Each structure stands twice: as C-alpha cells, then as structure tokens.
Amino acid sequence: MNRHEARLLRRGNPWLHALLRASRLAPPIGRLPRVGWLVTDPVLAREVLNDHRSFSMGGEGGVGHMWGQLFGHEMAGLFDGAAHTEVRTAARDLFTEQAAAELVERTQGAHHRALAARLADGREADLAAETRVLAGRLVADLLGLELGAEDAPYAELFATGERLASLALGTTSSTELPEGKLAEAAELAGRLTAAVPAAYAEAGADTILGRCRELGFSLDLTRGLATLLAIAGTETGASGTARTVALLHDSGQHRLLLREPSLLPNAVREGLRVATPAPVIGRHVAADTTVGGRRLRAGERVMVLTYRANNDAGPFDITRDYIPQTRQLWFGAGRHLCLGAAVARTQVARMLETLTAAGRPWRITAREPARRVLVPSYRSLRVRLE
Ligand code: HEM
C-alpha cells in the first residue's frame, strides 16, 4: 500500500485500517469473531454481491437496515426485491454516460474552467476542498437546491452529508442506530432535503425528484431516496477524485498521462481501483448458503473487503489493462452496482482534464488526511503546476 494511502486509511478510520492490514494474509473467505465473514477474493466478492437470494441489504449488517431506521419501512423495502428493481429501472436513463456528462458539465463546468485558469496562472489550489465544493454542486442539483454561485454553501452541503454519513461510523459492529444518533441523523437529513418538497411538487419528469413523483412515491420516500443519493455520491466521489490526483503524482505517472492523454480512462479506472472509496460492502445472510467451500448461516453478517480484493491485483499503474477478476468491484456488483458509476467516472476524468489542460505536470505542496470519516480521504491536497 502506498504510504500516503495507508495514512489516509489510518487517520480516516483506524478500525478499517487495522482490519485491512490484518486481512492481508486472510483466506479468500474466513470468519472473524464478533465481526462476521470476511471476503477478500474478487471472484467470491462478486459471487456474494450477485446472490440476491442468500444475501440482503435489509437485515442487520446491511446499509438498508440503517436507512430503514431513518426513513421508515417503505425506504428499507426499497433495497431488496421488486421495489428495488422498479426504482432502478425508472432511474436508468437519468444515469447513462450521456446524462452523466450533461450533469457534470451543467453543475461543475464553470467551476472547472475557473480552476484550470487559476492553475495555469501558477496559483496553488487545494484540490481536496475543490472536490468537496464540486461534489456539493452536483448534489445540490440532484436535491433541487438553489444555492447560488459562491462556493461556501456547497462546501456546507458537503459537510452536512459527511456528518450524516459519519453517524454510521460507529455501526461497523452493528447497523442498529441508537436513539441519540437517530435524532441527529433526522435533523441533518431534514437540512439536506429542505428543498425537496417544493421540487417534488414542480420538478420535470427528467429530474430525480420529478421522476419520484411520477412513480407515485410518497414525499417521505422521495426525501429518503434523495438523501441516499446525496450521501452515496459525495464523499466517495470527492475521495476518489483527490486520491487519483495524488496517486498519479506520487507514482510520477502524471508525466506519462501528459505525454499520452489517451491513457486518461485508464488513469480514472486505476485511481478508483487503488483508492476503492467504498472499501467495505456489508451484507446480511438471508438464507443458508455456501461460498468458497464455507457454510454461511442465515442471520450472519458478511463484509466484502473490496479494498483488499481490488488492491491485490498490484500497485497503481495507468498502463495496466482491465482486470477481468475485479471488473469494477470498486462500484460493487449485482443489482446494487453503483447507480452513479458514470457520474463518478466523469467527475474524476473532468478533474484530470482540468489538471492537464495547461500541459504542465503538477506538484503536491502539502497534504493532510481527513480524520474520523466514513470514507478515507484528503482533508487538504495543495497542488501547483510546475
Ligand atoms: C468514486 C465514486 C463512487 C464510488 C466508489 C461508489 C461506490 C458504490 C458502491 C460500492 C455501491 C454498492 C454498495 C452496495 O452494494 O452495498 C454504490 C451504490 C450506489 N451508488 Fe455509488 N459510488 C460512487 C459515486 C456515486 C455517485 C456520484 C452517485 C450518485 C450521483 C452514486 C450513487 C449510488 C447509489 C444510488 C447507489 C445504490 C444503488 C443500489 O442500491 O441499487 N454513487 N456506490
């Protein structure tokens, strides 16, 4: 593991860092007392994520369990079964490559142009802060919020989402949220979705909120879905972008990318593989089953260590070919495969275009990891063009 990446994991989530270190010598699937089953092998990981009969999100150990406590049974029911298929099908055309390109350009294009000009001028930029504002701009659009031209409200929006996600930090051993945390989470979700009722009433059917209305979803369910989108897409996207920038720099491969711009999609893929911003995916065992020769019992819990499964293929290398074993495991697999994958890839690519626009390599002048966050990330990553 690159030493900067190791530091991000240690500072961001010491428990996760220890788990990932301990799992270096772990078998493809094994059992850890008080935690549950750990899966480290990419092929077995996909087997678990594709087996929707034996593994669910809704029970203890799954993310649906937490969201159900926040937004009610209707919301919990959306993670599994027919309701989930219905939502995915209805939202599909809003998350295609084309839709992602339009969304990123509409919400981030002007910001990127200004950033490219500042960098070309020889000025320094904190790319971690920039990615938070950019993620905030994108999410504001999805939430129907109109926050104006300045950066600050978008950074604040990001911070609200980050606080909401961090409430889940203490839930690595259980996904049952205590009363105090529930009240705080409900307050934060209320702030994030302040504009949802108005947008729900008026938004066109080509927006997420308008689409929820057309589908007959209740306002509460729509608020829940909007919050889920805001959380799913912010920290992961910001983390993946800043870390890809740092990995390119630390490996010296930013110079190769400048010489061979056609490697940009590879750089995005490798950055997301090595960073794996969602390092663990939890599932509840819904029915007895066998994985990799081990017998898993209903009611147990599985943690798919995607970070380990992705990183065992080797260090960051933008000349590396697509890896058939891992595929896109950083976006999960199966029915819950990241809905925002195209948005995420486009965002990272857009940042790399901004950084390479002037044709000069960048230098990292200072950096600081974020502390106690759900998604390991940079708090600051100061960059200047050479
Ligand atoms: C680098 C950035 C991102 C990474 C690494 C990432 C990763 C993931 C992963 C691993 C899952 C599956 C979780 C599971 O199976 O339990 C997921 C689901 C999801 N992601 Fe992303 N994500 C990213 C960005 C985004 C963005 C930008 C959006 C929205 C604009 C988004 C929206 C979603 C949604 C809605 C789901 C739930 C899908 C479902 O349950 O059907 N993600 N993401």
Automatic annotation (TrEMBL):
InterPro entries for this protein: Cyt_P450, Cyt_P450_B, Cyt_P450_CS, Cyt_P450_sf
Query: What Pfam families does UniProt report for this protein, alphabetically?
Result: p450 (PF00067)
Keywords, in A-Z order: Heme, Iron, Metal-binding, Monooxygenase, Oxidoreductase
Please give the family membership noted in the entry. Answer: Belongs to the cytochrome P450 family.
This protein is called what? Cytochrome P450
